[in-house]
């Protein structure tokens, strides 16, 4: 007895591409003949027209025509404008970010609470002219800042002599 036919060979036979030796095997082998009849049954089911009532199909058709006559929905008209507004907002955020990130210093020293009267602390309320004036006066001194505490020692000693 020869080998059974493969599914591909049975499908070829179903669509008219089969060979003559496949015909003889189908007549002799009951298993292959049953598989061929199952393929033919499935083909008939697939090609059969649907059993839907004409009233159902007519109602569906009327519903489709009614929706086509209504025109586009209100929300679909605004979709391009909404997309353009979102793109504009993203573009503005990209070009003008809300805040600039400040660089973080790892070992920042603690702020000095008490400052000497000669060097006042610059606050945000101080105008630009006042800030530049203070910086200029601090830089015009010929004496280093480290020498200022030494003057206080000598001034105390001079006051004690008088």
Summarize the structure.
Helix content is 61%, strand content 0%. With 162 residues, it is mainly alpha-helical.
Report on the structure:
Helix 2 (20-28) crosses helix 3 (30-47). The longest helix has 18 residues, at 30-47. This protein has helices at 7-14, 20-28, 30-47, 54-70, 74-77, 79-95, 128-139, 148-161. The protein has a domain at 128-161. The protein has 8 helices and no strands. With 162 residues, it is mainly alpha-helical. The radius of gyration is 48 Å and the shape is elongated.
Q: How do the strands and helices of this protein lay out in sequence?
A:
Blueprint lengths: L6 H8 L5 H9 L1 H18 L6 H17 L3 H4 L1 H17 L32 H12 L8 H14 L1
Helix pairs in contact: 2-3
Keywords:
single chain, 162 residues, mainly alpha, 8 helices, 61% helix, elongated
Biggest β-sheet: count, sense, barrel? none
Question: What's the rounded overall pLDDT mean?
Answer: 78
Q: Report the radius of gyration as a whole number of Å.
A: 48 Å
Please count the helical segments: 8
Which outline best applies?
Answer: elongated
Note poorly predicted spans.
none
Beta-strand residue percentage:
under 5%
User: Helix fraction?
Assistant: 55-70%
Distance between the amino and carboxyl termini: 138 Å
Q: Could you say which structural class the secondary elements and strand pairing correspond to?
A: mainly alpha
